[in-house]
Amino acid sequence: ENKNTDQHLATSRWRKFSREWIRTAKSDSLDISWLKDKDSIDADNLPEPDVLAAEAMGELVQALGELDALMRELGASDEADAQR
């Protein structure tokens, strides 16, 4: 497991993970994350799925309204109406 490797490579994102290490350290999970983005969202602090879905739906409805207005501004009212 990273033998004969310089110290930087041994801890870099391209290092090797032995089968034994995955079994012991990760309980056979291949979910190996070693890069933590300072701006990443902690999944433990996310709202409930129904809240996230409602927010997404609201954003999509708003985007569709903006697209509808754009099509009408471009003179494509018939096409916009056909999409309803």
TrEMBL record:
Alphabetized UniProt keyword annotations: Methyltransferase, Transferase
GO molecular function: methyltransferase activity
SUPFAM superfamilies linked: S-adenosyl-L-methionine-dependent methyltransferases
Domain of life of the source: Bacteria
A Gene Ontology biological process term: methylation
Stored InterPro entries: SAM-dependent_MTases_sf
UniProt key word Plastid: no
Protein name per its UniProtKB record: SAM-dependent methyltransferase
